Amino acid sequence: MKVAVAKYRIDGPDALPDFAAYADKQARWLAEAQAMGAQLAVLPEYLSLELGATFDEAIRGDLHASLVATQACHAAWLDLYARLARELRMHVVAGSFLLDVGRGRYRNRSYAFAPDGSHVWQDKLRLTGFEKQAGVIEPGDALKVFETGAMRSAVAVCYDSEFPLPVRAQCEAGARLLIVPSCTDTEAGATRVRVGCLARALENRCFVAQSVTAGVAPWSPALDVNTGEAALIAPMDVGLPHDGMIVQTRGEQHWAVATLDFAALEASRAHAQVANDRDWSSQYFPSVQRAKMSAFAR
User: Fold this and answer.
1) Contact 182, 160 (CB under 8 A)
2) What is the domain-level CATH number for residue 176?
3) Looking at the domain assignment, is residue 23 inside a domain?
4) Mean pLDDT over residues 11-29, rounded?
5) Which segments of 86-204 are extended strands (E)?
């Protein structure tokens, strides 16, 4: 499968005066990925918050007000990506939408669209400090995998990629591609997510597709600064990139694109230097369930 991951530049009110302008931008970006041969395109976390640019200054400068305002766009947002997935005949992971799930609480929900326009979703499970401080965002409570063509994929939204056990459960359910829509505002944050992606690829013998936000958006309390590079990542083993990096964006590049060979990934098990994926259960023997203090002795 040929996969494209976005280094998605956030635009402001001048470029996005209304939903129609936002929709035109999505169509341009996804058409660009399709022209590069992509069968799956991955957009970044917090994609829906760019809609804040379409509201007046008082709303877009207030996170809570912008969350309330974007809810009116939710149905049109779903229709937009379903239509683009159908027209472009590709799978699309539309980053994430902060969705009101009742009681004034929001979930950071990532939607994946199939070429027939149908969709599935995965909520973010672990909240960052920023999300906790917002006071209105709650974590999801379920893990999913889904079919993308002939193989299974799963989504870990940004911070979720830094936790091994949920991703392990997704891979044990058959996922061979982990999709990581991300948004980080510091170099440290970008590094943490990248290290998480590399580690999850190593542990599970899976590919990882990470998208990122880019640029500055001083009008938004959530999208103010954006760092990192989009990347496609593989396990570090014989026949695969020694550093795990298949391809990543550079500079002003919009997309990192590569063909992921899932047959080769499975075949790599036969001549692997290490087998972290198969040796996973060996961590659980009784003597390493708990670490004990040990004193120095002569």
Assistant:
1) no
2) 3.60.110.10
3) yes
4) 98
5) 91-94, 97-102, 105-113, 119-123, 146-148, 151-155, 175-181
Question: What residues does 111 pair with on adjacent strands?
Answer: 121
Domains in the chain, number: 1
Give 209's pLDDT tier (boundaries 50, 70, 90).
very high
Cα distance between residue 50 and residue 9, in whole Å: 10
Of 25-29, 42-46, 202-206, 288-292, least confident by mean pLDDT is 288-292
For residue 290, what pLDDT band results from cuts at 50, 70 and 90?
confident
Contact 241, 250 (CB under 8 A): no
With respect to residue 297, please indicate whether it lies within any of the assigned structural domains. Answer: no
**Average pLDDT over every residue of 277-297:** 82
Residue 226 is part of which domain span?
2-288
Chain position carrying tokens 């063509």: 149
Beta-carbon contacts of residue 177 (< 8 Å; ≥ 6 apart): 1, 3, 148, 151, 152, 153, 154, 206, 207, 208, 209, 260, 262
In a domain, 256, yes or no: yes
Percent of the chain whose predicted confidence (pLDDT) is above 70: 99
Q: Are 106 and 67 in contact (CB under 8 A)?
A: yes
If 0-12 CB within 10 Å is exposed, 13-18 middle and 19+ buried, where does residue 285 land?
Answer: exposed
The rounded distance, in Å, linking the Cα atoms of 174 and 223 is 34
SS3 call for 49: helix
Entry pTM: 0.96
Please check whether residue 78 is in contact with residue 43, taking contact to mean a CB–CB distance below 8 angstroms: no
